[in-house]
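Lab notebook, bench 4. Continuing the backlog of folding jobs that were queued last week. Each job is logged with the same field layout so the records can be merged later without manual cleanup. Today's entry covers DNA-binding protein H-NS, a 113-residue chain. Filled in by technician R.K.

JOB TYPE: sequence-to-structure
TARGET: DNA-binding protein H-NS
LENGTH: 113
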Amino acid sequence: MDERKRESIVAYLRRRMAEFGIKPEDVATSIAADQERLQAVRFRDASGNTWDGKGAPPQWVVQAISAGQSLEHFAIDGASNRDPGKNTGADWRNDPFAGTRLATIRTEDISAA
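JOB STATUS: finished
OUTPUT FIELD FOLLOWS
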C-alpha cells in the first residue's frame, strides 16, 4: 500500500473515531481484551467458532463429535501434542463417495459448467 493511501485511511479512521467519541486508548483496550480471550481458546473449527474447553461444549463441538470427529482435531495447539502413530482424522477407507464422481470432481470441472 502506498504512503498516500495509508495516510488517507488513517485520517478517515481518526475522523470516524472522533465522530463516535472513540479514543485510541479504547481501541488498545479492546485489542488487548480480544488477545486475552483468544489466548484462553483451546479449540477452534474451520468456521472460526471457538471454545475454551470449560463448561458445556457448544453446539458445533457436539455436532462434530456426533459426526465422528475427535476433539483433538480442533485443538489449537493439538498439532504438537498429537501422537504421530495415533490416527485422529477421518477414516477414508470407509468413505461412501470413494471412487465416485463426487470424490473426483475438480475445480476446473465446476468453473466450466
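OBSERVATION: The chain has one domain: 3-86.
SIGNED: R.K.
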